[in-house]
Design brief:
- Residues 124-256 form the Ricin B lectin domain.
- It holds the Pfam family Ricin_B_lectin.
- The protein has helices spanning 7-17, 66-69, 84-105, 259-273, 326-334, 338-345; strands spanning 49-52, 56-59, 129-130, 136-139, 150-153, 162-166, 173-177, 183-185, 192-194, 204-208, 215-220, 226-229, 238-243, 253-254, 278-285, 289-290, 294-295, 300-301, 308-313, 321-322, 365-370, 375-381, 383-393, 400-410, 420-426.
- With 433 residues, the protein is of the alpha+beta class.
- It is elongated and about 100 Å long.
- The N and C termini lie far apart (101 Å).
- The chain has six helices and 25 strands.
- α1 packs across α3.
- It is 16% helix and 28% strand.
Protein backbone atom coordinates (compact mmCIF):
# COMPACT_ATOMS: atom_id res chain seq x y z
CA UNK A 1 0.00 0.00 0.00
CA UNK A 2 1.31 3.43 -0.98
CA UNK A 3 0.61 6.55 1.12
CA UNK A 4 0.01 8.85 -1.83
CA UNK A 5 -2.70 9.78 -4.35
CA UNK A 6 -1.73 9.90 -8.00
CA UNK A 7 -3.47 11.73 -10.91
CA UNK A 8 -5.83 8.82 -11.41
CA UNK A 9 -7.26 9.33 -7.93
CA UNK A 10 -7.97 12.99 -8.71
CA UNK A 11 -9.70 12.08 -11.95
CA UNK A 12 -11.78 9.47 -10.10
CA UNK A 13 -12.87 12.17 -7.65
CA UNK A 14 -13.94 14.42 -10.51
CA UNK A 15 -15.93 11.59 -12.05
CA UNK A 16 -17.58 10.97 -8.71
CA UNK A 17 -18.55 14.68 -8.56
CA UNK A 18 -20.16 14.38 -11.95
CA UNK A 19 -22.15 11.33 -10.89
CA UNK A 20 -20.12 8.80 -12.86
CA UNK A 21 -19.72 5.35 -11.33
CA UNK A 22 -15.94 5.15 -11.71
CA UNK A 23 -13.58 3.86 -9.06
CA UNK A 24 -9.87 4.32 -8.76
CA UNK A 25 -7.12 2.80 -6.80
CA UNK A 26 -4.97 5.11 -4.71
CA UNK A 27 -1.26 4.44 -4.98
CA UNK A 28 -1.44 1.85 -7.78
CA UNK A 29 -1.67 4.21 -10.77
CA UNK A 30 -4.46 2.27 -12.53
CA UNK A 31 -8.21 1.67 -12.44
CA UNK A 32 -9.51 -1.53 -10.88
CA UNK A 33 -9.35 -4.23 -13.46
CA UNK A 34 -6.67 -2.42 -15.54
CA UNK A 35 -3.07 -3.45 -16.03
CA UNK A 36 -1.68 -6.80 -17.21
CA UNK A 37 -4.34 -9.41 -17.69
CA UNK A 38 -4.19 -12.37 -15.30
CA UNK A 39 -6.44 -14.16 -12.89
CA UNK A 40 -7.96 -11.91 -10.26
CA UNK A 41 -6.83 -12.25 -6.69
CA UNK A 42 -9.54 -13.68 -4.51
CA UNK A 43 -10.05 -12.40 -0.99
CA UNK A 44 -7.94 -14.38 1.40
CA UNK A 45 -5.38 -15.57 -1.18
CA UNK A 46 -2.08 -16.32 0.48
CA UNK A 47 1.07 -18.36 -0.14
CA UNK A 48 -1.04 -21.34 -1.10
CA UNK A 49 -1.91 -19.62 -4.43
CA UNK A 50 0.60 -19.35 -7.23
CA UNK A 51 0.71 -18.07 -10.80
CA UNK A 52 3.29 -19.10 -13.30
CA UNK A 53 3.24 -17.26 -16.63
CA UNK A 54 5.52 -19.84 -18.14
CA UNK A 55 4.12 -22.98 -16.64
CA UNK A 56 0.42 -22.19 -16.61
CA UNK A 57 -1.92 -21.90 -13.71
CA UNK A 58 -1.40 -23.94 -10.59
CA UNK A 59 -3.53 -22.93 -7.66
CA UNK A 60 -4.11 -24.51 -4.29
CA UNK A 61 -7.74 -23.81 -3.36
CA UNK A 62 -7.90 -21.55 -0.34
CA UNK A 63 -9.87 -22.39 2.75
CA UNK A 64 -13.19 -20.54 2.36
CA UNK A 65 -15.46 -19.37 5.13
CA UNK A 66 -19.28 -19.65 5.06
CA UNK A 67 -19.56 -15.96 4.14
CA UNK A 68 -17.12 -16.45 1.27
CA UNK A 69 -19.04 -19.51 0.05
CA UNK A 70 -22.30 -17.51 0.05
CA UNK A 71 -21.36 -13.90 -0.79
CA UNK A 72 -24.05 -11.13 -0.91
CA UNK A 73 -25.63 -10.83 -4.34
CA UNK A 74 -24.91 -7.05 -4.72
CA UNK A 75 -21.43 -7.08 -3.20
CA UNK A 76 -19.07 -4.52 -4.77
CA UNK A 77 -15.29 -4.64 -4.78
CA UNK A 78 -13.83 -2.55 -2.02
CA UNK A 79 -11.07 -0.06 -2.52
CA UNK A 80 -7.84 -0.52 -0.62
CA UNK A 81 -7.57 1.52 2.55
CA UNK A 82 -6.08 4.91 2.05
CA UNK A 83 -3.92 6.74 4.43
CA UNK A 84 -5.10 10.04 5.97
CA UNK A 85 -2.98 12.25 3.62
CA UNK A 86 -4.42 10.43 0.62
CA UNK A 87 -8.02 10.92 1.81
CA UNK A 88 -7.43 14.59 2.51
CA UNK A 89 -6.00 15.08 -0.98
CA UNK A 90 -8.96 13.29 -2.54
CA UNK A 91 -11.42 15.42 -0.56
CA UNK A 92 -9.68 18.60 -1.68
CA UNK A 93 -9.71 17.43 -5.30
CA UNK A 94 -13.42 16.62 -4.99
CA UNK A 95 -14.22 20.11 -3.70
CA UNK A 96 -12.17 21.77 -6.45
CA UNK A 97 -13.85 19.72 -9.18
CA UNK A 98 -17.35 20.46 -7.86
CA UNK A 99 -16.63 24.19 -7.62
CA UNK A 100 -15.25 24.21 -11.16
CA UNK A 101 -18.27 22.35 -12.50
CA UNK A 102 -20.61 24.71 -10.66
CA UNK A 103 -18.93 27.72 -12.25
CA UNK A 104 -19.14 26.18 -15.71
CA UNK A 105 -22.79 25.28 -15.25
CA UNK A 106 -23.89 28.70 -13.98
CA UNK A 107 -25.40 31.14 -16.52
CA UNK A 108 -23.03 33.76 -17.87
CA UNK A 109 -23.40 37.25 -16.50
CA UNK A 110 -22.99 40.38 -18.60
CA UNK A 111 -22.88 44.05 -17.64
CA UNK A 112 -26.19 45.84 -17.66
CA UNK A 113 -27.30 46.95 -21.12
CA UNK A 114 -30.50 47.98 -22.81
CA UNK A 115 -32.75 45.03 -23.56
CA UNK A 116 -32.95 44.39 -27.28
CA UNK A 117 -36.67 43.68 -27.08
CA UNK A 118 -37.37 47.10 -25.50
CA UNK A 119 -38.23 48.77 -28.80
CA UNK A 120 -40.48 51.80 -28.51
CA UNK A 121 -39.87 52.85 -32.12
CA UNK A 122 -38.09 51.53 -35.23
CA UNK A 123 -35.13 53.80 -34.47
CA UNK A 124 -34.57 52.05 -31.12
CA UNK A 125 -34.08 48.55 -32.53
CA UNK A 126 -32.57 48.43 -36.00
CA UNK A 127 -29.70 46.82 -37.84
CA UNK A 128 -27.46 47.84 -40.73
CA UNK A 129 -26.84 45.45 -43.61
CA UNK A 130 -24.00 46.07 -46.06
CA UNK A 131 -25.10 46.05 -49.70
CA UNK A 132 -21.57 44.94 -50.54
CA UNK A 133 -21.36 41.64 -48.63
CA UNK A 134 -24.88 41.15 -47.26
CA UNK A 135 -23.59 40.96 -43.69
CA UNK A 136 -24.79 42.91 -40.66
CA UNK A 137 -22.96 45.52 -38.57
CA UNK A 138 -21.68 43.83 -35.41
CA UNK A 139 -19.20 44.07 -32.51
CA UNK A 140 -16.16 41.84 -33.06
CA UNK A 141 -16.24 38.65 -30.96
CA UNK A 142 -19.21 40.00 -28.98
CA UNK A 143 -16.88 42.09 -26.83
CA UNK A 144 -18.48 44.31 -24.19
CA UNK A 145 -15.49 46.59 -23.66
CA UNK A 146 -14.20 49.84 -25.13
CA UNK A 147 -12.02 49.56 -28.22
CA UNK A 148 -13.67 46.52 -29.81
CA UNK A 149 -13.71 46.72 -33.61
CA UNK A 150 -16.96 47.30 -35.49
CA UNK A 151 -17.26 44.56 -38.13
CA UNK A 152 -19.83 42.84 -40.32
CA UNK A 153 -20.99 39.29 -39.64
CA UNK A 154 -23.53 36.87 -41.01
CA UNK A 155 -26.79 37.03 -39.03
CA UNK A 156 -27.34 36.03 -36.34
CA UNK A 157 -24.06 37.37 -35.05
CA UNK A 158 -22.98 38.69 -31.66
CA UNK A 159 -24.47 42.15 -31.02
CA UNK A 160 -26.28 43.26 -34.19
CA UNK A 161 -29.11 45.33 -32.68
CA UNK A 162 -28.59 49.11 -32.52
CA UNK A 163 -30.48 52.25 -31.58
CA UNK A 164 -30.14 55.89 -32.63
CA UNK A 165 -29.84 58.66 -30.05
CA UNK A 166 -31.09 61.60 -32.14
CA UNK A 167 -30.04 65.22 -31.56
CA UNK A 168 -33.27 67.22 -32.07
CA UNK A 169 -31.32 70.31 -33.10
CA UNK A 170 -30.18 68.90 -36.45
CA UNK A 171 -31.34 65.24 -36.56
CA UNK A 172 -27.82 63.86 -36.39
CA UNK A 173 -27.43 60.83 -34.10
CA UNK A 174 -25.11 58.51 -32.26
CA UNK A 175 -25.24 54.78 -33.10
CA UNK A 176 -25.56 52.86 -29.82
CA UNK A 177 -25.31 49.08 -29.49
CA UNK A 178 -28.28 47.64 -27.61
CA UNK A 179 -26.19 44.90 -25.98
CA UNK A 180 -23.08 46.85 -24.95
CA UNK A 181 -24.54 50.35 -24.55
CA UNK A 182 -21.50 51.79 -26.37
CA UNK A 183 -21.25 54.12 -29.38
CA UNK A 184 -19.69 53.64 -32.81
CA UNK A 185 -16.64 55.92 -32.89
CA UNK A 186 -13.82 56.77 -35.28
CA UNK A 187 -10.75 54.56 -34.80
CA UNK A 188 -7.73 53.12 -36.58
CA UNK A 189 -7.32 50.69 -38.27
CA UNK A 190 -11.09 50.18 -37.89
CA UNK A 191 -14.12 51.83 -36.33
CA UNK A 192 -14.50 50.93 -32.67
CA UNK A 193 -17.11 50.95 -29.95
CA UNK A 194 -16.40 53.44 -27.17
CA UNK A 195 -18.23 54.81 -24.16
CA UNK A 196 -20.77 57.37 -25.43
CA UNK A 197 -19.59 60.91 -24.74
CA UNK A 198 -21.38 62.93 -27.43
CA UNK A 199 -18.30 64.18 -29.28
CA UNK A 200 -18.47 64.83 -33.02
CA UNK A 201 -16.62 61.64 -33.89
CA UNK A 202 -19.62 59.73 -32.49
CA UNK A 203 -22.24 61.77 -34.38
CA UNK A 204 -23.60 60.55 -37.73
CA UNK A 205 -26.30 61.41 -40.26
CA UNK A 206 -28.06 59.62 -43.11
CA UNK A 207 -27.86 60.40 -46.81
CA UNK A 208 -30.33 58.47 -49.02
CA UNK A 209 -29.07 56.45 -51.98
CA UNK A 210 -30.87 57.37 -55.19
CA UNK A 211 -33.57 54.94 -56.28
CA UNK A 212 -34.01 53.18 -52.93
CA UNK A 213 -36.29 53.86 -49.97
CA UNK A 214 -34.28 52.07 -47.28
CA UNK A 215 -30.65 52.32 -48.41
CA UNK A 216 -28.37 55.05 -47.07
CA UNK A 217 -24.85 56.26 -46.72
CA UNK A 218 -23.95 56.91 -43.07
CA UNK A 219 -21.82 60.04 -42.76
CA UNK A 220 -19.80 61.32 -39.84
CA UNK A 221 -20.36 64.87 -38.55
CA UNK A 222 -16.65 65.49 -37.99
CA UNK A 223 -15.68 65.65 -41.68
CA UNK A 224 -18.75 64.30 -43.57
CA UNK A 225 -16.88 61.13 -44.58
CA UNK A 226 -18.73 57.81 -44.96
CA UNK A 227 -18.95 54.61 -42.92
CA UNK A 228 -17.19 52.12 -45.16
CA UNK A 229 -16.79 48.33 -45.43
CA UNK A 230 -13.01 48.28 -45.83
CA UNK A 231 -11.97 46.96 -49.27
CA UNK A 232 -15.48 45.56 -49.76
CA UNK A 233 -14.45 42.43 -47.83
CA UNK A 234 -16.64 39.38 -48.48
CA UNK A 235 -16.12 37.44 -45.24
CA UNK A 236 -17.19 37.49 -41.59
CA UNK A 237 -15.36 39.78 -39.17
CA UNK A 238 -14.70 42.25 -42.01
CA UNK A 239 -13.58 45.60 -40.58
CA UNK A 240 -15.42 48.88 -41.07
CA UNK A 241 -13.74 52.24 -41.41
CA UNK A 242 -14.20 55.82 -42.54
CA UNK A 243 -13.33 57.16 -45.99
CA UNK A 244 -14.27 59.87 -48.46
CA UNK A 245 -17.77 59.35 -49.80
CA UNK A 246 -18.03 57.81 -53.27
CA UNK A 247 -21.43 56.11 -52.98
CA UNK A 248 -20.41 52.62 -54.12
CA UNK A 249 -21.83 49.42 -52.60
CA UNK A 250 -19.34 49.17 -49.71
CA UNK A 251 -20.67 52.53 -48.42
CA UNK A 252 -24.34 51.60 -48.77
CA UNK A 253 -26.32 50.25 -45.82
CA UNK A 254 -29.93 49.12 -45.68
CA UNK A 255 -31.98 49.86 -42.56
CA UNK A 256 -35.50 50.96 -41.56
CA UNK A 257 -37.35 53.34 -43.97
CA UNK A 258 -37.91 55.79 -41.08
CA UNK A 259 -34.27 56.79 -41.46
CA UNK A 260 -35.29 58.88 -44.49
CA UNK A 261 -37.08 61.41 -42.28
CA UNK A 262 -33.87 61.97 -40.35
CA UNK A 263 -32.02 62.43 -43.64
CA UNK A 264 -34.49 65.09 -44.84
CA UNK A 265 -34.50 66.97 -41.56
CA UNK A 266 -30.72 67.00 -41.31
CA UNK A 267 -30.41 68.18 -44.92
CA UNK A 268 -32.94 70.97 -44.32
CA UNK A 269 -30.98 72.22 -41.31
CA UNK A 270 -27.75 72.07 -43.24
CA UNK A 271 -29.36 73.97 -46.10
CA UNK A 272 -30.47 76.63 -43.64
CA UNK A 273 -26.88 77.09 -42.47
CA UNK A 274 -25.38 76.92 -45.96
CA UNK A 275 -27.79 77.73 -48.80
CA UNK A 276 -25.33 76.42 -51.39
CA UNK A 277 -25.92 72.84 -50.22
CA UNK A 278 -29.50 72.72 -51.54
CA UNK A 279 -31.74 73.97 -54.32
CA UNK A 280 -35.45 74.01 -55.18
CA UNK A 281 -37.08 73.45 -58.56
CA UNK A 282 -40.82 74.20 -58.78
CA UNK A 283 -42.97 72.06 -61.06
CA UNK A 284 -46.46 73.42 -60.50
CA UNK A 285 -48.36 76.03 -58.50
CA UNK A 286 -52.00 76.19 -57.46
CA UNK A 287 -54.14 79.37 -57.56
CA UNK A 288 -54.27 81.30 -54.30
CA UNK A 289 -56.99 80.00 -51.99
CA UNK A 290 -57.82 80.27 -48.28
CA UNK A 291 -56.61 77.48 -46.04
CA UNK A 292 -58.88 76.07 -43.31
CA UNK A 293 -59.35 78.57 -40.49
CA UNK A 294 -57.13 77.95 -37.48
CA UNK A 295 -57.23 79.22 -33.92
CA UNK A 296 -54.83 82.09 -33.27
CA UNK A 297 -55.57 82.93 -29.61
CA UNK A 298 -56.92 81.61 -26.36
CA UNK A 299 -60.67 81.81 -25.57
CA UNK A 300 -61.62 84.69 -23.24
CA UNK A 301 -64.91 85.26 -21.28
CA UNK A 302 -66.40 88.67 -20.38
CA UNK A 303 -67.88 88.11 -16.92
CA UNK A 304 -68.98 91.74 -16.47
CA UNK A 305 -72.33 93.50 -17.00
CA UNK A 306 -71.10 95.55 -19.95
CA UNK A 307 -69.02 95.16 -23.14
CA UNK A 308 -65.23 95.14 -22.87
CA UNK A 309 -62.61 95.59 -25.55
CA UNK A 310 -60.06 92.79 -25.21
CA UNK A 311 -56.64 92.81 -26.83
CA UNK A 312 -55.66 89.26 -27.76
CA UNK A 313 -52.08 88.12 -28.11
CA UNK A 314 -52.15 86.00 -31.26
CA UNK A 315 -50.02 82.89 -31.56
CA UNK A 316 -47.00 83.17 -33.81
CA UNK A 317 -47.52 81.42 -37.12
CA UNK A 318 -46.35 81.98 -40.66
CA UNK A 319 -48.77 79.75 -42.50
CA UNK A 320 -45.92 77.82 -44.11
CA UNK A 321 -45.98 74.04 -44.24
CA UNK A 322 -44.80 71.18 -46.41
CA UNK A 323 -45.55 67.52 -47.02
CA UNK A 324 -42.02 66.09 -47.02
CA UNK A 325 -41.34 65.99 -43.30
CA UNK A 326 -43.26 66.93 -40.17
CA UNK A 327 -40.18 68.40 -38.53
CA UNK A 328 -39.23 70.32 -41.65
CA UNK A 329 -42.81 71.56 -41.87
CA UNK A 330 -42.59 72.72 -38.27
CA UNK A 331 -39.40 74.62 -39.09
CA UNK A 332 -41.11 76.38 -41.99
CA UNK A 333 -44.19 77.17 -39.89
CA UNK A 334 -42.18 78.61 -37.02
CA UNK A 335 -40.00 80.66 -39.35
CA UNK A 336 -36.83 78.77 -38.41
CA UNK A 337 -36.17 77.64 -42.01
CA UNK A 338 -36.29 81.02 -43.70
CA UNK A 339 -33.60 80.09 -46.23
CA UNK A 340 -35.67 77.17 -47.52
CA UNK A 341 -38.75 79.37 -47.62
CA UNK A 342 -36.87 81.99 -49.62
CA UNK A 343 -35.77 79.42 -52.19
CA UNK A 344 -39.39 78.40 -52.72
CA UNK A 345 -40.66 81.97 -53.08
CA UNK A 346 -38.11 82.65 -55.82
CA UNK A 347 -40.17 80.32 -57.98
CA UNK A 348 -43.38 82.32 -57.54
CA UNK A 349 -43.64 84.50 -60.62
CA UNK A 350 -44.37 88.08 -59.60
CA UNK A 351 -45.81 87.06 -56.22
CA UNK A 352 -42.75 87.33 -54.01
CA UNK A 353 -43.89 90.70 -52.63
CA UNK A 354 -47.23 89.12 -51.76
CA UNK A 355 -45.79 86.42 -49.50
CA UNK A 356 -47.18 86.82 -46.01
CA UNK A 357 -44.52 87.23 -43.35
CA UNK A 358 -46.62 85.96 -40.47
CA UNK A 359 -48.33 87.34 -37.40
CA UNK A 360 -45.57 89.90 -36.80
CA UNK A 361 -47.27 92.00 -39.52
CA UNK A 362 -50.07 92.80 -37.02
CA UNK A 363 -47.72 93.16 -34.03
CA UNK A 364 -48.97 89.89 -32.51
CA UNK A 365 -52.08 91.60 -31.11
CA UNK A 366 -55.74 91.83 -32.17
CA UNK A 367 -58.32 93.98 -30.38
CA UNK A 368 -61.84 92.54 -30.09
CA UNK A 369 -64.96 94.07 -28.43
CA UNK A 370 -66.59 91.29 -26.38
CA UNK A 371 -70.23 91.74 -25.22
CA UNK A 372 -71.16 91.11 -21.57
CA UNK A 373 -71.51 87.44 -20.70
CA UNK A 374 -69.95 86.21 -23.94
CA UNK A 375 -66.77 84.49 -25.07
CA UNK A 376 -64.24 85.97 -27.46
CA UNK A 377 -61.32 84.59 -29.50
CA UNK A 378 -59.34 85.13 -32.69
CA UNK A 379 -58.95 82.84 -35.70
CA UNK A 380 -56.69 83.09 -38.73
CA UNK A 381 -57.60 82.61 -42.36
CA UNK A 382 -54.51 82.18 -44.51
CA UNK A 383 -54.57 82.74 -48.24
CA UNK A 384 -51.99 80.44 -49.76
CA UNK A 385 -50.68 78.79 -52.86
CA UNK A 386 -49.32 75.25 -52.93
CA UNK A 387 -46.12 74.76 -54.85
CA UNK A 388 -45.01 71.28 -55.90
CA UNK A 389 -41.37 70.79 -56.70
CA UNK A 390 -38.12 69.01 -55.97
CA UNK A 391 -35.49 69.66 -53.34
CA UNK A 392 -31.91 68.80 -54.21
CA UNK A 393 -29.70 68.30 -51.16
CA UNK A 394 -25.92 67.91 -50.92
CA UNK A 395 -25.77 69.85 -54.17
CA UNK A 396 -21.96 70.14 -54.08
CA UNK A 397 -21.25 66.50 -53.23
CA UNK A 398 -23.40 63.47 -54.01
CA UNK A 399 -26.77 65.11 -54.77
CA UNK A 400 -30.02 63.45 -53.81
CA UNK A 401 -33.55 64.68 -54.37
CA UNK A 402 -36.87 64.68 -52.54
CA UNK A 403 -40.29 65.57 -53.92
CA UNK A 404 -42.27 68.07 -51.85
CA UNK A 405 -45.37 70.22 -51.82
CA UNK A 406 -44.86 73.49 -49.97
CA UNK A 407 -47.72 75.68 -48.79
CA UNK A 408 -46.76 79.34 -49.28
CA UNK A 409 -48.91 81.91 -47.42
CA UNK A 410 -49.82 85.10 -49.32
CA UNK A 411 -50.90 88.53 -48.12
CA UNK A 412 -53.36 88.82 -50.97
CA UNK A 413 -54.05 87.93 -54.56
CA UNK A 414 -55.21 89.62 -57.75
CA UNK A 415 -58.59 87.94 -57.26
CA UNK A 416 -59.14 89.93 -54.06
CA UNK A 417 -58.43 87.24 -51.48
CA UNK A 418 -56.35 88.04 -48.44
CA UNK A 419 -54.85 86.56 -45.32
CA UNK A 420 -56.61 88.01 -42.28
CA UNK A 421 -57.45 87.53 -38.63
CA UNK A 422 -61.11 87.06 -37.67
CA UNK A 423 -62.61 88.32 -34.38
CA UNK A 424 -65.14 85.89 -32.89
CA UNK A 425 -67.70 86.25 -30.06
CA UNK A 426 -70.44 83.89 -28.89
CA UNK A 427 -72.64 83.43 -25.79
CA UNK A 428 -71.78 79.72 -25.65
CA UNK A 429 -68.30 78.37 -25.08
CA UNK A 430 -66.73 77.10 -28.28
CA UNK A 431 -63.38 75.31 -28.22
CA UNK A 432 -60.95 77.19 -30.40
CA UNK A 433 -59.74 74.60 -32.90
Amino acid sequence: MHDRCDDLSTRAACRQCQGASATARCGHGRLLGSGPRGPPSAPGDDARSAWSPAGGARQVPPVRTRQERNPPVMALPSLPRRSAPCLRALAAALVICCIALGVLASPSQTPGAHAEENCGSPLQCLDFTSLSNGRVLDVQNGSLGDGAFIVTNTAPGHHQSWRLNVDPADSSFSIVNNATGKCVDIGWPALRQQTCRGQQSQQWYFQPVSGATDVFMIRNESDHSCLDLIAGAQYDDAWTGLSSCHGRANQQWSTVPEARNLAVEHAARRCQKDASTCSWAAKSETPAAPLPTVCASSVWFNNTSGPITQTFGVQKTTGWSNSLSLKMSGGLTSGDLTELAFKVTLGLEGQITQVWSGSESVNNQVTVPVPAGQYGWVTLSVLATKVTGTWTFDARGLPWTAEDTVTVPLKGSAAGGATHYIANTHPDFTPCA
